[in-house]
Amino acid sequence: MRSIGLALVTLLTAGCASSATPVGAAPPPQTVRVTSSSISAVSSATANVGSLPYTMDRVWGELPAVFDFLGIPLNTLDVPNRTIGNNGFKVRRRLKDASLSRYIDCGSMQGEPSADTYEVYLSVVTRVDPEGKGATTTVTTTVDAQARPVSLAGQYTSCASKGTLEQTILDRVRMRLG
User: Fold this and answer.
1) By CB atoms within 10 Å of each CB, which of 34, 39, 59, 81 scores lowest?
2) Cβ(118)–Cβ(150) under 8 Å?
3) Phi and psi dihedrals of 89, rounded to 5?
4) 48-177 maps to which CATH number?
């Protein structure tokens, strides 16, 4: 009985002890990670924005052919919002004629770029908007990639865009219109 009373007193006095956080100060930040059995990596995609000296309608009209040229199958075609691309497809080694490591960086294994040997889940989406009142169009492309080894069961990890795919989209539209 005496040990229960001592434990109760200890608990009560511990609750009254001062904390290291001053009154009114924000508590220290906490990190929470949520994972699932499929893709667990958090998107690290950033938008790449460029301008073209053509009307929005002309730029928009060329984008399906540019995506086809690059080997990106379309599953997103939002005409009212002028958004086109693919929100996610699996690809290995190459995107049409170019090695994936030309466009994304997934690290390397044994000196070889992982993008060229891993299974890559790739998302490429482009949106066009008029820029001011002139005949200039803003082209915003987002590339998001995640990869995992083919021969080992494992989680997808984030890859970084090198910016070359986004620039290639701009250059191909410019070439087709120029």
Assistant:
1) 34
2) yes
3) -145, 155
4) 3.30.530.50
Pairing of strands 104-105, 47-52: unpaired
Q: What six digits make up the tokens of 75?
A: 């599953």
Distance CA(159)–CA(174), nearest Å, equals 27
- The string of pLDDT tens digits covering residues 36-89 is 333 334 445 678 999 999 999 999 999 999 999 999 999 999 999 999 999 999
Q: 2-40 pLDDT, tens per residue?
A: 444 444 334 334 444 433 333 333 333 333 333 333 333
**How far apart, in whole angstroms, are the C-alpha atoms of residue 100 and residue 106?**
10
**7 is written with which tokens?**
């434990």
End-to-end CA distance of the chain: 91
Sequence ranges of the domains in the chain? 48-177
Phi, then psi, of 165 in degrees rounded to 5: -70, -45
